[in-house]
Amino acid sequence: MDEYNKKLNKNKIPKSKGVIKRDFKLSNFTWFKVGGKAEVYFLPKNINDLVNFLKSLDKKIPLKILGAGSNTLIRDGGIGGVTLRLSKNFSEIKYLNNEKISVGAGLNCTKLARNCASKNLQGFEFFTGIPGTVGGAIKMNAGAYGHETSDFLEKVTTVNRVGEIKKYLRKDIKMSYRKSSLKKDEIIIEALFKGKKGNSAIIKEKITKLSEKRKKTQPISLKTSGSTFKNPFKLKAWKLIKDSGCSNLKKGGAQVSSLHSNFIVNHGIANAKDVEDLGNMIINKVKKKFGIKLDWEIKIIGSKQKYRKYFNE
Which of 46, 134, 156, 160 is 20 to 30 A from 182, alpha carbon to alpha carbon? Predict the structure, then answer.
């Protein structure tokens, strides 16, 4: 047996009470509906299951975290190692005293907003405009309609690459525009938020208006993602893109949305390379026109070519 195969034989998938799948198609879990497969796709049953899995997993094996797939572009070659996704078992909401709520990181942001409305808890309406999970929203300090996740966050519970659970107070986390100081290998599993008491009918009406506004201004009925690029300081990415002559710019099956310039849409025939190449074309055009380099807001993960295998067959 050669050295390569000896090394492969050492890499065994840890046992789990959750769901483990091999060479698993990921495109159905992303809003773009593109991308390759995961070598190992893992849905932990609960926190203990996740902790035990991480403690047993070889630390040299890559671990990627996939949330709602709304703000993610998975490359066509797929993802080697383990792709982790928190299931519905990580989506519980607990209503505590003093307008505080404990929220599982796997909960959809829109569901959070609507659930809080039914409990007369206001402040979370802006989450209606965030197409993702609570964990992802915290990690990138997602925002919409004048608010950011950090505005209401009080505490975060994470588990790191070696299975250690840690708790952070909001004041101990640096959070700014679309970023936080939480490390890449820290998996958010739970968060504590604080809102304010309000009137359920008024809150629900606000959520409805925000949802209608989003439908009118963003191409959410198409295969797309959230905003493609971050807004440069005191500037709007969509305006820079439009004024650079990128309106309706195409690459393969990917195109700049005619409804909102900071959205790329897949007309059903695009692959991940089309989307990434189109994004880079936009970056180059804006840089040439204005001397400003746009930064991706979409998280790009995976390999351009077929992923490298880390586990024995």
Answer: 46
- The boundaries of the domain holding residue 105 are 92-216
> Catalytic site residue 91?
no
Q: What is the DSSP-derived secondary structure letter of residue 183?
A: -
Please pick, among 16, 87, 154, 178, the residue that the annotation labels catalytic: 178
User: How many structural domains comprise the chain?
Assistant: 3
Q: Note whether 170 and 57 are same-domain residues.
A: no
Residue 227 catalytic? yes
Number of other CB atoms surrounding residue 33 within 10 Å: 14
Q: Which position has the token pair 């993802």? A: 79
- Is 212 labeled as catalytic in the residue annotation? no
Q: Contact, 48 vs 86, CB < 8 A?
A: no
* Whether residue 183 is found in the same domain as residue 287: no
pTM listed for this prediction: 0.92
* Short-list 13, 40, 35, 11, CA closest to 24: 40
Query: CB 60: neighbour CB atoms within 10 A?
Result: 10
Where the chain has pLDDT below 70, the residues are: 1-10, 313
Same domain for 100 and 77: no
Say yes or no: 203 and 255 in one domain.
no
DSSP state of 229: B
The pLDDT value recorded for residue 185 is 87
289 is a domain residue? yes
What pLDDT, on a 0 to 100 scale, did the predictor assign at position 10? 59
Catalytic residue selected from 150, 227, 244, 261: 227
Question: Of 113, 106, 112, nearest to 69 (Cα)?
Answer: 106
Query: Same domain, yes or no, for 209 and 120?
Result: yes
* Contact criterion met (CB below 8 Å) for 251 and 278: yes
